Amino acid sequence: MSPRKRPSKHTRPVSDRPLLGGHQSRESRSDGDWIVRQVSGSAAGKSYRCPGCDQQILPATPHLVVWPENPSLLAAIGGGQSLDERRHWHTACWQRRR
Predict the structure, then answer these.
(1) pTM
(2) Distance between CA atoms of 66 and 77, rounded to whole angstroms?
(3) What stretches in the chain show pLDDT beneath 50?
(4) Which of 6, 15, 16, 65 is deepest in the core (most CB within 10 A)?
(5) How far does Cα 13 stand from its chain's mean position?
């Protein structure tokens, strides 16, 4: 008997994903409502490019993952919910954004 296979993280709703030790909240900005997840340095294993400053977020750097509370029409049609709209931000860059 084979063990039951978990669904891919890419097909599960964002709300069903583990937080990896981070904290998640909802924030309102001038361009809409956003889900903001804190990522600890120990949970950050890859490099990302911050859309706020266009600089790299290096592995082991605490940062934020941000996505719209309501996915765009294209994301909704594609079934990806807002997964394709997630962006990794330096905490300071996100805080400066209005």
Answers:
(1) 0.69
(2) 20
(3) 14-20
(4) 65
(5) 12
